[in-house]
Specification:
This protein is an all-alpha fold and 97 residues long. The chain is built from three helices and no strands.
Length: 97
């Protein structure tokens, strides 16, 4: 009995709170400053990433982009080696028959 009363009260509170939050989050008074803040944050992140990349380059170390290019090239070489191994296996199998 007490649980049911508490549960009904909680459900009512949750519904009203959700309605209030939804109306607030759709409001331009909230969305505009949040959008501006997100834009500013992304600009700071971009500048920070660029500065870190420049620092890595000055130190003579590979940047993330350099590492990704190298990994891509290694994956391509690995695929080619696997293809060659399969062709060689096929040729060896054909010689045996």
């Amino acid at each position: 009995m007490i649980w049911e009363t508490w549960k009904k009260g909680f459900d009512t509170w949750e519904q009203k709170t959700a309605e209030l939050m939804e109306s607030m989050l759709k409001s331009p008074a909230v969305l505009q400053p949040m959008g501006s803040m997100l834009t500013a944050t992304m600009k700071v992140k971009t500048a920070t990433d660029k500065a870190i990349g420049n620092w890595w380059e000055l130190m003579g170390l590979p940047t993330r982009r350099d590492q990704e290019r190298t990994l891509h090239a290694l994956n391509q070489l690995n695929s080619r080696l696997i293809d060659l191994e399969e062709k060689l296996a096929d040729l060896n199998a054909a010689k045996k028959h």
